[in-house]
Records
---
Amino acid sequence: MEDKNIYEYTLMLADSSLIMGQRLSEWTGHGPILELDIAITNIALDEIGQARLLYQFAAELKNKQEPGSKATEDTIAFLRDAWDFKNLQISELPNGDWGQSVLKIFFLAHWQRQMYGKLIYSPIKNLSDVAEKALKEVTYHVRWSSDWVRRLGDGTEESRGRMQKALEYLWPYTQEFFEPEGYEWDGIFENAGEDFFENMKAGWNKEVSLVLTEASLTLPESHTYMRKGGKKGLHTEHLGHLLAEMQFLQRAYPGCEW
Amino acid sequence: MDTEALQKEFDEKIEKDIKIEPKDWMPAEYRKTLIRQISQHAHSEIVGMLPEANWITRAPTLNRKLILIAKVQDEAGHGLYLYCAAETLNITREEMQEQLLSGKAKYSSIFNYPTLTWADMGAIGWLVDGAAIINQIPLCRTSFAPYSRGMIRICKEESFHQRQGYQILLTLAQGSKEQKAMAQDAINRWWWPSVMMFGPRDADSPHTKQSMAWKIKRFSNDELRQKFIDMCAQQVEVLGLKIPDPDLKWNEERKHYDFGEIDWDEFWSVVKGYGPCNEERMSARIAAHENGKWVRDAAMAYAAKQDAKSKSSTDKTSTKISKNE
Ligand SMILES: [Fe+2]
Ligand SMILES: [Fe+2]
């Protein structure tokens, strides 16, 4: 069932963006300086904007598949439970300190750039359109977060210590990035061969390691336990709390216009 | 030129509505007044982000969430323009921030009230941004040029803020019974604090006279307050909701709305720091500042290292050149 795959793949992208944006928006009003408050808020806006476009497409698919289901971007975002969310686990992790948040953006944006960089060639027009817009945004997120990873890694002793700690905490969550779920293949990418995901992973690895080395940070041992499952709905304890907060109004007052 | 001649030149400019630029001579008191007013205004934008940021993660739809985030972000931008305008008067942003965090500088008391329901996002946009617009439109013509330029940029964004707030209330007012009650409750709580945003009565406002003579201010507190009340009294009709003032009535003779007595004890107690959220707002600002220290330090250390690197590489090239010579 090709449409179901496309639907789930779209949710995976959309959920990753929404949950990331939701988390980052917690910084608004609390950033280390005004300029950074504005910058991280911009990234939150971009992520939630991407999520909206993707959910709109997902809703279209769902309504086509199940006539009468009346799905909208909001029913999908606000009325599903944690196990239906397919976001990468890294996006739901708490913000932690500024360094941890920057590093989260850094890893996710690099993943998004790989993904959207391929998706612009997708035969599914809705997806390639979103990818084209999103690619510009995440390219900026890559640049911004890479600059800050360098700055904080190679800043003071304290900042380096904090970044190294954040790196050790977040690294295990990057493993699931390029381990495809069944729904990530069919019909979404053209000419996706056996090594399609391997290549993306290699590209991601190369770019990420380069910046981390420049930032004088040390990659954790490769045998570190890896976390995965987000793409099929297996999450950390954090997601439930995030959703409880995000979905509160829609749950407390069902069926209202806002 | 001696001070007297400079003063005369300054007075003439004010008289002819010629704007004062930072490099121009100005009386020390004029500078002091502006620093106080602009920095206080900037602090209000920044502290003002907090009550609305409180609802960002709980916004009811994705669209509302985006609008609210963008709105709160605009306020950060306003703070930034205003700090820059104040900096042209020879005070640094760090000094101003220090004054805010130590409690020496004030910010608008309205932000010391809590945001308890989603409808508060509507009431703040409609009433608080609405009052801000009425205060700020005349400031676009204020006599100090950088402040005036800042206000022109800010005012463009404020009208979007007010509209989005009114939209929220309108949607709630046309919604379920609970939603309507939520909207009315928010107006009940935000009305009087918004009316107080225009400051003390003219008779109790020590700086007004001089500020008006310098054309920093163009209208008095009471004039602006009246304008605000007239505007809201009409707009609330469309919402089908009520302003919580039994004395609010059109006065045909004055061509204005009459309104009830303001609770000045409440006003002064919030100004003095005893409002419901003074402590929360200040501790949020202090926490942001303290938690951000290592980030600012690291950025500075990194910049210094980069500087040293580029310097040593230019040094190397210059020694090479001199050797070749
Ligand atoms: Fe503002
Ligand atoms: Fe505003």
---
Amino acid sequence: MTASPAPELGSLAGIAASVRAGERSARAVLAVSLDRVRELEGDLHCFNEVTVEAAEADADAVDRMVRAGLDPGPLAGVPVALKDNLCTVGIPTTCSSKILAGWLPPYDATVVSRLRDAGAVAIGKTNLDEFAMGSSTENSAFGPTRNPWDLGRVPGGSSGGSAAAVAAGMVPLAFGSDTGGSIRQPAALCGIVGVKPTYGVVSRYGLIAFASSLDQIGPFATTVADAALGLEVIAGHDPMDSTSLDRPAPSLLATLDEGVSGLRVGIVADFLSAGSECGDAVVAAAEALAAAGAKVDQVRIPELLLGLPAYYVIAPAEASSNLSRYDGVRYGLRVDGPDAETMNARTRGEGFGAEVKRRIMMGTYALSAGYYDAYYGQAQKARTLVIRAFEAAYRDFDVLLTPTTPSVAFPFGSKVDDPIEMYMCDLCSIPSSLAGHPAASVPFALSPEGLPIGVQVLAPALGEAVMMRVAASLEAAAPREARGPVTP
Amino acid sequence: MTGYETVVGLEVHCELATATKLFCGCRNAFGDEPNTNVCPVCLGLPGSLPVVNRRAVELALRIGAALNCKAQRSIFHRKNYFYPDMPKDYQISQYDEPINVDGWLELPDGSRVGVERAHMEEDTGKTTHVGGGGRIHEAGYSLVDYNRAGVPLVEIVSRPDIRSAAQARAYVDELRSILVATGASDGRMEEGSLRVDANVSVRPAGATEYGTRCEVKNLNSLRSLERAIDYEVARQIELLEAGERVSQETRHWDEGDSSTHSMRSKEEANDYRYFPEPDLTPLVPDVALLTAAAEGVGAMPAERRHRLSNLLAAGSELATRRDGSTDQVVTVVDLGLDELVHGAVAAGADPRLALARAANEAAANPDAAKLLDPMAFAALLKMESSGQLSATQSKEVLAELMSKGGDPGQIARRLGYEQMDNASLGSMVDEVIAANPQEWRRYREGDDKVAQFLLGQVMKSSKGRANGKLVAEAFAFRRDA
Ligand SMILES: [Zn+2]
């Protein structure tokens, strides 16, 4: 099957400008978005919850501000979707897990407050792999999300719901979290732009933790400019997050059109497996950048291949601790037992899905007395090697290019029985996560079967501005039909 | 028992007297309604993150400085174990890179106990088991109060340098004084602000290797600490004498039957799976923090007790401590009123009187007493010493001086304690003589008992305003004239 182009809501700047000018009401913009959700949600299952009433109230608040002569902000009236691991006051926040089903947070994540303060209108909570653990959204306790380019294929994960919602034109902007590729991989598989910022640029306060030293929130959009605006709004220091960098939000839009002339671009040769369509797209992307004036060269960084095994020790280790609190005592699911220990065990046994349990067990093992040095300690050393290798590479290059994923969107069920095969999806995205560096996936080509292929742009810490310039140049060179939104 | 040496190391948990908790803005208070001082952070709600309370770091550094520790760059770890009163099912604590290391504490008898470390961590909530006799495995259900969850603690770990139960008690007593003196803690063991666990072992006298140790918990008072150590030492010696081995385990002190009971053995012990807390960045004490901590420390109680004792004549019958300090000295130093006493004595007050008034009347309201002007305090004490004010009057004036401030002389006059002039005193004495001719005759014959009666009559008619010493002199003058 093939997808067809979708009607566009227009750019974020365009929507906000018309709402701010009173030419279009936020309520009318919302109606277009909700109509699209009603039309396609049955096929796609992007959302765990569509919050129509709350969205209408938020849109009305924006419209009231405009009528009162006030400025609702740079995202005035822009409908947005939020991954269901971002806390929202009074709206169920579940991480697509039975253990948190129905939990109503008493507070908003910092990102959620910043979006509201910028005039955005949140329309719902999107599906994900349970606790953001997975690469296909098949691990959701509430059923998988489908890829709008091909309903028989996964949208990627873990932020599959957010990616598919943007790719299907339900919302022009959505937010996800990326721990090892959970924004970039689904963005690539859904033919849209996805950005993982530098660790610490966006507050994690209110993001339900998977692996705290890796988690970072970022935007999905159909264009680089929209993703840049989305990131500008949510970025910047937050005193509620000790790991948040004490610096203002990066300025991205101002330099987006400055081009790539003179920039040094490195193609990471280690990730170009011969003959793969994703590798070919990277080569083509590099050629396009060279044509636009960049100096392009290949670079070997074999240490980056250490990333995957290191990640699959560190992330589960942190997760095993972060997920301890789901014990049935204070919130979420409780399965009773004769004593606290049994209640704990039963609650967790019934509440968590297979992949979450697998990672909790791997992580618990890696941190255990007698194994710590061999696993967690060793993985931290590998992480340091990845960081040093990047440092060396960035002495010669301003940005690096890799495929975002080893393959295009795969059919449902094709990898669920083989965790290692599923974990390999993150091969190219993990190194930047371990280093805390920014990375963006940009749709650049279509596979022979008509599926989108993403190219990943990597930059050193706080290199978002240059990274987004390169992404914009790639977007300009890419065929329009390689990116969403599409109608399934 | 002879032939064995007792070896004790103590772990003292001290709740810091901060206004707010360690990682959130909730009130740090004892005794509030359950679950009223809580927020997403200290309840460990999904998505919440900790932010370190700078004041807690300052107090931890202050404790370290007072215990002669080295302050260093430190990190937090997660200590993972499941327990209903731990909201996150891990405790944020410090592990192999604590904030203070390698210190020592000098006891009143001059012995020194090494301090291995004094690290920061968060407290847990409090579980109450309802029904089933109060023990968890028999409980009908449990209630958890998270008000205490996230309260800042400093855990002070001694080296195994303590050699007797009495020395253990002296160590905790001295440590408590220091913690109070630094302002880091209120030092109340009964409210749980100070909690002590003891690692106890014995070894044959002269041995260099340590014996197998047991960790004794549930020591709720200094008395329990002393008794539990004595019990545990006797138990271990008995085992060894019987040819058995001491097994490494955690034991619970039961005040009811005055013995320790096994809680869990080493094999059953939790694997805490410590790893660096990724939600927090390393604590690198900056100059401002270190300076604030150092300034907050001041002189230590031992040194201050010594200085204060030196003010007094040696060999007081009140001496209760081996270093010669008295209960009054201990109280005054604990409450931080020693500077007031020193100031008053420097301004000419009698040292014993100054100490007594500070330890009793001033101690009733230490916050106000700390604000007393030593000069005014000295002026008041001098009025009392010279007989211008009776002891009762002096206490009244002191109370008003503490509550409202002012000049002691003016307060005394306002309260009607003004000294009578000589003329009116003389006529009052003459009136008493005229009204009591028989008593006056017996007085002149040398009856000492009646002297007190005559004096009392003058005090009565002067409503206590007369200076007793001057009245006695006036009678003597008339007798000898
Ligand atoms: Zn709190």
